[in-house]
Amino acid sequence: MKYLVWLMVLFMSGCLNNTLKDTPDRELRQRHYQCRMAVNLSAAEIQVCQNVSRECDRRARKGHFAC
């Protein structure tokens, strides 16, 4: 199941940056947590996690601490 979720996220990684802005706080917080707890990530998974982290930082700079 874990690999299916990651595969789906990786498939959408091209549009992920754009859709993260519309992602609800709860989902973003869950993705951020999953990235923080993950081990042995592939290069694509690392990129997805960096995108999630950037979105958390972007929201924090605006005073909205979602993560």
Explain what this protein looks like in three dimensions:
- The protein is mainly α and 67 residues long.
- 75% of the residues lie in helices and 0% in strands.
- The protein is built from four helices and no strands.
- It has helices spanning 2-11, 13-20, 25-37, 43-61.
- The longest helix has 19 residues, at 43-61.
- The radius of gyration is 11 Å and the shape is elongated.
- The protein starts with a helix and ends in a 6-residue tail after the last helix.
- The relative contact order is 0.16.
- The mean pLDDT is 84.
- Cα-to-Cα separation, first versus last residue: 24 Å
Silhouette: elongated
Largest sheet: none
In DSSP terms, counting alpha (H) and pi (I) runs of 4 or more, how many helices? 4
| Strand content bin | under 5%
Query: Roughly how much helix do the residues carry, as a percent range?
Result: over 70%
Mean pLDDT: 84
User: What class would the helix/strand composition place it in?
Assistant: mainly alpha
Number of strands: 0
Q: Would you identify the regions where 5 or more consecutive residues have pLDDT less than 50?
A: none
Radius of gyration: 11 Å
